[in-house]
Amino acid sequence: MTYNAPLKDMLFVVNELANLSEINQLPGCEDATPDTVEAVLEENAKFCGEVVAPLNQSGDKEPSYWHDGQVTTSKGFKEAFRGFADAGWQGVQHPAEFGGQGLPKLVATPCIEMLNSANIAFALVGLLTDGAIEALLTAGSAEQKTRFIEPLINGKWTGTMNLTEPQAGSDLAAVRTRAVPQGDGTYKIFGTKIFITYGEHDMAENIIHLVLARTPDAPPGVKGISLFIVPKFMVGDDGSLGERNDVHCVSIEHKLGIKASPTAVLQFGDHGGAIGTLVGEENRGLEYMFIMMNAARFGVGMQGIGLAERAYQQAVAFAKERVQSRAVEGSAGPVAIIHHPDVRRMLMSMRAQTEAARALAYVGAGLSDLAHSHPDEATRKANLAVYEYLVPVIKGWSTEMSENVARDGVQVHGGMGFIEETGAAQHYRDAKILTIYEGTTAIQANDLVGRKTVRDGGAVAKAILAQVRATEAQLAEVRDADFTAIRSQLVAGSAALEAVVDYVVTNTKADPRAVFAGSVLYLKLAGIVLGGWQMARAAIVARQKLDAGAGDAAFYRAKIATARFFADHMLAQADGLRHAIVDGAAGVLALDVEQF
Amino acid sequence: MTYNAPLKDMLFVVNELANLSEINQLPGCEDATPDTVEAVLEENAKFCGEVVAPLNQSGDKEPSYWHDGQVTTSKGFKEAFRGFADAGWQGVQHPAEFGGQGLPKLVATPCIEMLNSANIAFALVGLLTDGAIEALLTAGSAEQKTRFIEPLINGKWTGTMNLTEPQAGSDLAAVRTRAVPQGDGTYKIFGTKIFITYGEHDMAENIIHLVLARTPDAPPGVKGISLFIVPKFMVGDDGSLGERNDVHCVSIEHKLGIKASPTAVLQFGDHGGAIGTLVGEENRGLEYMFIMMNAARFGVGMQGIGLAERAYQQAVAFAKERVQSRAVEGSAGPVAIIHHPDVRRMLMSMRAQTEAARALAYVGAGLSDLAHSHPDEATRKANLAVYEYLVPVIKGWSTEMSENVARDGVQVHGGMGFIEETGAAQHYRDAKILTIYEGTTAIQANDLVGRKTVRDGGAVAKAILAQVRATEAQLAEVRDADFTAIRSQLVAGSAALEAVVDYVVTNTKADPRAVFAGSVLYLKLAGIVLGGWQMARAAIVARQKLDAGAGDAAFYRAKIATARFFADHMLAQADGLRHAIVDGAAGVLALDVEQF
To answer: What range(s) does the Acyl-CoA dehydrogenase/oxidase C-terminal domain occupy (chains A, B) (predicted)?
Structure first.
């Protein structure tokens, strides 16, 4: 099953919803003209479709494997990674001074989507490397930047994030790995890290592990965690590789999905101590790690969208080809199953959710560019706040919806979907990690409630809702059945979201258990309403284009129909979610532990 | 991970909701006294927990495999099947005259649930054999019954259903397998059947294939299909095994889940023709097969419930054990994750849906007993109609919810859930077949719309809704927050279901595509409302028991809390579903095929 990047939709979102022309005017973003961006995305689409996508199923069938501390990756991965790095795709959003392309996040984001549509297991090595680059750019010394960033961007080396330990899954306060200062500016690192994505592999010459650990006098809890660079091979002043460091992969996991991506258990310091250097200041490691994590969380949201798009394309191809049973309205003989209304419903659901999540994420990427590059500080700050509100939604909702989309993808295939050969089942297996790693949906939801809603008394959420209301007013200007339906559901959805924001702001301090009992539902509601808002905006643009007789009329009509579907099928769930959040805590919390 | 049958809840449902005491008074059901039933279920629980459950994960790790036309099943399956059959578990619901226990379906149903909680892949051999027995009991000749049924009940032999062919998945009109009469009362069978569960294995001496095929002069389509017995080994008049028949397993599938269960491709007649004998009359095969299929559909619904229970138990055990992060309301140190509100919400969702689906299914089993054994014909007919309305709901909704429950089970485990060793991921993989085989959810939904709702103008649906209303009136008599909430959501839910029934009855003929665009959503709505109804009934009984000071107060309080959860989280979705059904077809059907 091939992958064809949905460039038309991507460019529509980039240009019409995420306002590339505005981003293009920001200082440092002058190169990202609409024409250049289109060319970049076309080139990326070609690489992802031709080189990376064909390795998705083969990598799943013949995963990476461990032997004697080494990991051999799936056939073709090494060469594809070489091609990826040589073409500059690792560096799309990174600074030109270290060899990157220096393009806005709004341009990198569709590239990341395409890579993940092509092959999530492959894309992970770049995702983690992006995170390492971000952390070094923010907190690394000038010398560390010079030494490490360029080889990470040109793909000579890759990066990892070492957070989790056996006793500390999501709870970084429980990190035990020790960092003992050696008096020469280096530290010796001792401990075990688990679930380290691409913690060991054969695709690059060196691996730069970014590791959370505690110095001997560090305070307990999250305030005593520092961040260290621990390279697999020591790096000389001239960038040359030196001795093997004392960090070793003792095993990799046997997983449900993303099998080609090696998930390592790393042992630090079993032979005298792994040599590490501090990033930034001691005890500020969590702060720096959050930089990586926020970038990575957005990236995992894109994985969900990429996977959903791939699953959708595969289901559409099957549904057009598979002939089975007569039409419910009668037909001479059996018809292609895409003609059956329930198959149609599943395909529309897959499509609508994917398009909505894509629009929300790209809009978020544009906000991030404004937050980083706008000359006006107040504008930067305002956009940063909205972007940060959206990050847990983009991560949590896009991945939750990708599970549903992958599930529907199997279902469209019927019995063939359950046979591994078909490939639909792989998406169902791969999707399941996305709602877990880089913080489960519940952790995203805690962030949404605590840092993103309660802390500012709901101000940012209300500011976003005011924008939704403005869109509702625009919808009212188009008088037809589609726009009436979209408006009516968006109005109900935004009212539900506003009621929930008020509930969260009012009750979190007094009754945290009740509010957090509905936190994931709040995240889902926010995803549905804000995704529905983007679909409504898309429909308005599409209507304008149609009225102006511009462009591809079938595309714009489909966009309006898809927005209509999203409204009647997704936004219509909003009030039920509101009820479950506002009135549903009693049922969640009533039982004693012994009653389970 | 062990399995402990939820006998307390099972007996509560059997006695209080499905009215065992009433069933016990039916002719032929006199042995099924509450005490006997309790003893039977306890014994079955012991067997399933001790013998079958431990083979679940090992069977997944080392699936059955094919070699030279033979299939070797997973380690321990053969011995466990011997124990299963010897203890009489295959025969629970089958007639005593053929060696069965002759117990009501209401008693067999919890046994089937337990077997499936223990091991779905193992349970399938019995499920299919049940289907073969049902078909032979209904349509077989006296001679066929004598020859075949007893060995199927005592487990010397097993049975299969051969429907699907490569070009005919769900569409039996497309069946091409040929049956050529030989003039001696036998037929030679030629063709290929796929997806044949336990179509070849080493657990019994013989396999009795029930095969759909066409005789030479048969009319086209579903009216030209006949049903044949094709044994793997020919069976002599005295029941002794004769020559190997010309039916051969050419391969088995590599599947997403239920890996221990061999899914065979069977080739009939490649070496001169497989010898078969007609069951019943020519061209009535589909009718007979529907008998098997209806029993099997109910059985697959029970698989969903069994799997959900197992996934729930595993998630609860992990959540009680795993210590991680402080409590949201503050705590001295990290707490067991069952204390975290979102984990609690997932566990309650798993529990509430499982209990509701169990209650609905067992009540359905009781209606089936009334439909078969009540002395009054009108009562039999009325109960049969309600049972038949429920079958697609029990199959479709219980399996759809089992996917969600298995998904939440992985999520509760966090990163550990994605590691196959943990076992949670197996449920997620296994669950995916349940919404597909024995008719996808869409096919169940077509049945619910067409045969079960439109055909009688919604009369049965309305009769059920009248019973729901009676429960609503009872709920109003208890004045506390839980019952007020349950009643309010049930009232809204039944109103939504009634509106949808009216919509379906009014519009199916004039606009079938619009109605079928919402058919699966109608099925889900029916499941939620009728499951919620059973939870409400359970809460009323629990309240009465508590008021009377009878029995296990913690159990009854948990039942009320679980009903409350179901109301606020599941029933609250009803109106959104109604909207998507009644107003959502435009979005589903707007696109041309080329726009996908």
So the answer is: 283-448
Which of A105, A131, A153 delimits the end of a domain?
Answer: A153
Instruction: Provide the pLDDT for residue A216.
Output: 96
Structural tokens at position A232 = 């697999």
pLDDT score recorded for residue B1: 67
C-alpha gyration radius of chain A: 24
- Is B326 part of a structural domain of the chain? no
β-pair type (A157-162, A206-213): parallel
**Cβ neighbours for B356, distance < 8 A, ≥ 6 positions apart:** B531, B532, B534, B535, B566, B570
Residue A29: C-alpha distances to residues A99, A332, B105, B465, B569 (Å)? 16, 58, 71, 62, 47
Distance between CA atoms of A567 and A572, rounded to whole angstroms? Answer: 6
Any idea what the CATH number is for the domain that residue A57 is in? Answer: 1.10.540.10
Q: Among B131, B153, B175, where does a domain finish? A: B153
Q: What is the pLDDT of residues A231-266, one digit of tens each?
A: 999 999 899 999 999 999 999 999 999 999 999 999
Query: Residues B184, B94: one domain?
Result: no
**Number of domain units in chain A:** 3
What is d(CA A83, CA A99) in angstroms, rounded to the nearest whole number? 16
pLDDT at A1 over 70: no
Return all residues near A332 (Cβ < 8 A) that are at least 6 apart: none
Give the catalytic positions of A in this structure. Answer: 438
Specify whether B112 is located in the same domain as B213.
no
Range of the domain at A214: 157-283
In chain B, positions 491-520, which contact chain A (CB-CB < 8 Å)?
A: 512-514, 516-520
B29 shares a domain with B122: yes
- Percent of chain A exceeding pLDDT 90 equals 96
Question: Residue B158 CA to chain centroid, in angstroms?
Answer: 19
A315 occurs within a structural domain? no
Q: Are residues B131 and B191 in the same domain?
A: no
The answer to whether B135 and B288 have CB atoms below 8 angstroms apart is yes
Strand-pair partners of B230: B209
CATH number at residue B228: 2.40.110.20
Q: What is the pLDDT of residue B323?
A: 94
Phi, psi for residue B248 in degrees, rounded to 5: -135, 140
List pLDDT tens digits, range B171-204. 888 899 999 999 999 999 999 999 999 999 999 9
pLDDT in tens, A10-44: 999 999 999 999 999 999 999 999 999 999 999 99
pLDDT (tens digit, 9 = 90+) per residue, B53-62? 999 999 999 9
Task: Report whether pLDDT(A512) > 90.
Answer: yes
**pLDDT tens-digit map of B343-383:** 999 999 999 999 999 999 999 999 999 999 999 999 999 99
- Within this chain, do residues B196 and B97 fall inside the same structural domain, yes or no? no
Judge if A125 and A169 occupy the same domain: no
Q: CB-based burial of residue B495 (10 Å sphere; 0-12 exposed, 13-18 middle, 19+ buried)?
A: middle
Q: Are residues B463 and B570 in the same domain?
A: yes
Domain assignment present for B290 = no
The reply to whether residue B568 touches residue A584, judged by beta carbons under 8 angstroms, is yes
Q: Which of B150, B200, B438, B498 is an active site residue? A: B438
Whether residue A402 is predicted with pLDDT greater than 90 in this model: the reply is: yes
Which of B254, B334, B587 minimises the CB distance to A569?
B587
Question: Considering only residues 293 to 322 of chain A, which have any Cβ-Cβ distance to chain B shorter than 8 Å?
Answer: 316, 319-320
ipTM: 0.97
At A176, list the tokens: 């035990």
Residues A255 and A267 in one domain: yes
In a domain, A330, yes or no: no
Residue B291, classed as helix, strand or coil, is helix
Q: What angle do CA B508, B469, B368 make, to 5 degrees?
A: 70
Judge: B255–A195 Cβ closer than 8 Å, yes or no.
Answer: no
Asked if B411's CB is within 8 angstroms of A436's CB, the reply is yes
